[in-house]
Amino acid sequence: MSLRPLFFALLLSLAAAGTASAQIVIGARIGVGPRYYAPRPRYYAPPVVVAPAPVYYAPPVVAPPVYYAPRPVYYAPRPVYYAPRPYYGRGYYGRW
């Protein structure tokens, strides 16, 4: 059994209905009537690339600054050394 008579019967029924879909089918088959174009392809936005969360590292361990204390101030007489004073030569008494 050939399907050609059934196809023409289908085309005739669609043409009798007068719908736009029948005209599109007939035009696509025979090549007359308004051309049928596929719907425009939808372009979707590419996926949003999110930067990874920043990685926070611990700060480097730095030694605390060295604190140099001032010279102590002694509110007392100089100690007395029970030893002979060194000899520095004539007229120089060695910062005493």
Q: How does this model look, in words?
A:
The longest helix is centred in the first third of the chain and has 14 residues, at 4-17. The radius of gyration is 54 Å and the shape is rod-shaped. It has helices at 4-17, 20-30. The protein has a domain at 1-32. By secondary structure, it is an all-alpha fold. Helix 1 (4-17) packs across helix 2. It has two helices and no strands. This is Virulence factor. It comes from Hymenobacter polaris. Residues 1-22 form the signal peptide.
List the helices and strands and how they pair.
Layout: H1 4-17, H2 20-30
- The H-and-E topology, N to C, reads as HH
User: Which residues sit in consecutive blocks of at least 5 with pLDDT less than 50?
Assistant: none
Helix content: 25-40%
Q: So what's the overall shape?
A: rod-shaped
Helix vs. strand class: mainly alpha
Instruction: Give the total of beta strands.
Output: 0
How would you summarize what this structure contains?
The protein is mainly alpha-helical.
Give the tags:
signal, 96 residues, Virulence factor, mainly alpha, 2 helices
